[in-house]
Specification:
The chain has 518 residues and is α/β, with parallel strands linked by helices. The chain has 4 domains: 161 residues, P-loop containing nucleotide triphosphate hydrolases (Rossmann fold, 3-Layer(aba) Sandwich), CATH 3.40.50; 71 residues, no CATH class; 150 residues, Rossmann fold (3-Layer(aba) Sandwich); 77 residues, no CATH class. It has 18 helices and 22 strands. Strands 6-9-10-3-11-12 form a 6-stranded mixed β-sheet, sandwiched between helices. A hairpin with a 2-residue loop joins β11 and β12. α4 packs across α5. The two termini are 42 Å apart.
Length: 518
């Protein structure tokens, strides 16, 4: 079957535009979708929840024409449908904005908006029309200030997302699928995203919103469908009224109290493992001092742009400080020298694990042994067997799933990829671990596992310094919290003495409340 012709069916607000019944999709050895049910209405935000591996990505690809279901029915605008390819889905009015935006950075905004369906006359692209039409669409999204001829790489993350939404609207989309749209946005940018979504739904456009952030689901969502192991475990739940404990239980089979492991008693050893004194880097952060003791987890809270990630990278030696010192176990490190940091026992899991920390096409064991290759070598040579044996021990300790360390790391879920990055440092003599957004793009169940791993490392005497955009994560995991705003540490306190409202008031005070440019 093919997509219904335009105009065959009309819908009003609250009418069902999309219905999935008993949809199944199987890959070799994996039943990714096992009888999924989903119903989406015009003018609503329908939230889709589930752990990594629950089937969300496969479902998105079925809806966007990448995969065809093996059985079951997909109805669009009142009629059964099977999309031959993504272009057919887009032409029918279903547009997908993926977490990793598929924009061509060197092309202009207008060229990206009309990519693949450029308006032509006599064989020539109508560039003036493209620019004018792009401005009209951007005006509709409340961002007419974005120049249509500006190269996309010159835009910030929020601006790029607006361009992706404009591309969807250039196809007259009736359904917009958004996969983790807030993952790279600051707090004020998320509020702007929600404003745009509300305006689109007021026009009758349906939105399928996928996020791991349950607070977002309550703010923007109308109804919720939950997937677990390829099945629909709950459908049509009211987003604002459904208790968090129920959502977590539907996704993981576990109750909410297991998300954060219990905080241990104050350790007796409070000798400084890491001492940072007066660290500064022009335009990023100023006069930062902090310490981390063996077995202590120190969290840094702050908005995107507050200097958190840049601070971690400077401590690790990936950036050179303009002033200040970094000392590990009494040994002062040379600035801008990652090798010196690693030799001192420091490891880092960066925010962008796929681009900065992993070789996606290589097997798990090779990714785990990258930093300890020389230790595994004998007479300058190593073997895959020794690498596999070492990686397998760590994989078992981290409960890596699947546990076959010969698999390409790209086949793992986000949570298990993060375990591989952490596992790399467990193979060495790591005494201090820096974690930048350790659970970004990771579902609730996998987060709980990562939290237990981090707590276990601390219990073994490893010091942990972590950055997270999610205040509840910082407060629930860290022993002590530093709050950063505009490149400065403005508050340091035990986590038990802070609450979410207090931290948000601190990080959002001042000019950051006025919003960031796109």
């Amino acid at each position: 079957m093919t997509a219904p012709e335009a105009g065959v069916a009309t819908t009003g607000h609250d009418d069902v535009v999309l219905r999935l019944t008993d949809v199944v999709k199987t890959f070799p050895g994996v039943r990714a979708l096992d009888g999924v049910q989903l119903e989406v209405r015009a003018g609503e935000v329908h939230c889709l929840l589930g752990q990594n591996g629950a089937g969300k990505s496969t479902l998105i690809k079925v809806l966007s024409g990448v995969h065809r279901p093996d059985s079951g029915t997909v109805e669009w605008l009142g009629g059964p449908i099977t999309f031959a390819n993504p272009q057919a889905a887009m032409k029918a009015g279903i547009a997908t904005i993926y977490q990793e935006l598929d924009l061509v950075e060197d092309l202009s905004v207008a060229e990206n908006v009309f990519l693949g369906h450029e308006p032509r006359r006599a064989g020539f692209v109508r560039r003036k029309y493209m620019a004018a039409r792009t401005t009209e669409i951007l005006d509709r999204l409340g961002h007419g200030e974005i120049p249509p001829r500006r190269a996309v790489h010159r835009l910030q993350a929020a601006g790029k997302q607006i361009v992706s939404m404009a591309r969807a609207l250039s196809h007259e989309a009736r359904l917009l699928i958004m996969d983790e749209p807030s993952a790279v946005l600051a707090h004020d940018e998320v509020e702007n995203l929600f404003r745009i979504i509300r305006e689109l739904t007021a026009q009758g456009i349906a939105v399928v919103y996928i996020s791991h952030r349950l607070e977002e689901i309550r703010t923007i969502g109308d109804r919720v469908t939950v997937l677990k192991d390829g099945r629909t475990t709950a459908a049509d739940l009211p987003a604002a009224q459904t208790p968090t404990s129920e959502l977590v239980s539907r996704m993981t089979g576990r109750s909410i109290e297991y998300v954060f492991p219990p905080r241990p008693d104050e350790p007796a050893d409070r000798a400084e493992l890491l001492a940072v004194e007066g660290l500064s880097r022009a335009g990023e952060f100023t006069d930062v001092s902090l310490s981390v003791a063996p077995g202590e987890i120190v969290g840094i809270a702050g908005l995107v742009g507050s200097g958190r990630s840049e601070l971690l990278e400077t401590i690790y030696g990936a950036r050179r400080a303009d002033a200040g010192t970094v000392t590990v176990a009494g040994r002062r490190l040379a600035g801008g020298d990652v090798g010196a940091a690693v030799r001192a026992g420091m490891g880092m899991a960066p925010e962008e694990r796929k681009s900065q920390a992993l070789l996606l096409g290589e097997p798990i064991y090779r990714n785990m042994t990258l930093s300890t290759f020389s230790q595994l070598a004998r007479l300058g040579f190593t073997s895959s067997r020794r690498e596999r044996e070492a990686a397998d021990r760590v994989a078992q300790s981290l409960d890596l799933r699947p546990g076959d360390v010969g698999r390409p790391v790209r086949t793992l879920s986000g949570g298990n990829q993060q375990k591989v990055v952490v596992g790399r440092w467990l193979l060495g003599d790591t005494r201090l671990l820096l974690l930048d957004e350790p659970t970004r793009g990771v579902d609730v169940g996998a987060r709980a596992e990562l939290y237990r791993v981090i707590r276990r490392l601390a219990a073994d005497g490893v010091g942990v310094l972590l950055v997270s955009s999610e205040v509840p994560e910082v407060l629930g995991l860290a022993d002590r919290v530093l709050v950063m705003r505009e490149g400065r540490v403005i508050r340091t306190a035990p986590a038990t003495e802070l609450d979410e409202d207090t931290v948000l008031d601190l990080v959002m005070a001042g000019s950051l409340m006025e919003g960031a440019p796109v």
